[in-house]
Amino acid sequence: MGLIAREFKAEVEALSTAQHKNLVYLQGYCVHDGSQLLIYSYMENGSLDYWLHEKTDGASKLDWPTKLKIAQGASCGLAYIHQVCEPHIVHRDIKSSNILLDEQFEAYVADFGLSRLIQPYNTHVTTELVGTLGYIPPEYSQSWIATLRGDIYSFGVVMLELLTGKRPMEVFRPKASRELVVWVQQLRREGK
């Protein structure tokens, strides 16, 4: 089974297993002539990434109550896949483009193509390193183990992104301020 077929199967399994008000709702899927299609509920406001980085003045349109609502909704969806649904799910690609927003700016965790199902009481799943640059936990560079903690780290990066409006990795910036987490840690050391 190819990588794309595995990712498609993982997403269908995860979304069939996990149903929560802050997870995208899988309406259906289709496999036909080598094409794979997932049908989700429509999200009128697109992704958090769109509002923070693509939409002109989008970040400034997100007031503090809306940002808090988005953070709470996304955290509830993540907590559900980690603690409640059986088997638990390690998402492995939490990022602002995988947090979708409906008409009322309710947040929905999306894109379970890289996720892995794990049995309760396990704390990790051994798998290949995946994720998006800027969201990958530092410990992943030393091991090939995807963990629930890794998802939490990535979610923390999303929260910093939501608070600062900055991308997690800006390759065209000076090296010292290229990574959002490193930049925030430096500001913290300086008491800023």
UniProtKB/TrEMBL annotation:
Protein name: non-specific serine/threonine protein kinase
UniProt keyword Ion transport, yes or no: no
GO terms assigned for molecular function: ATP binding; protein serine/threonine kinase activity
EC number(s) recorded for this UniProt protein: 2.7.11.1
Broad EC category: transferase
Originating species: Cynara cardunculus var. scolymus
Ranges for domain Protein kinase: 1-192
PROSITE patterns, A to Z: PROTEIN_KINASE_DOM (PS50011), PROTEIN_KINASE_ST (PS00108)
Catalytic activity: L-threonyl-[protein] + ATP = O-phospho-L-threonyl-[protein] + ADP + H(+); L-seryl-[protein] + ATP = O-phospho-L-seryl-[protein] + ADP + H(+)
Topology of the protein relative to the lipid bilayer: Single-pass type I membrane protein
One Pfam family named in its UniProt record: PK_Tyr_Ser-Thr
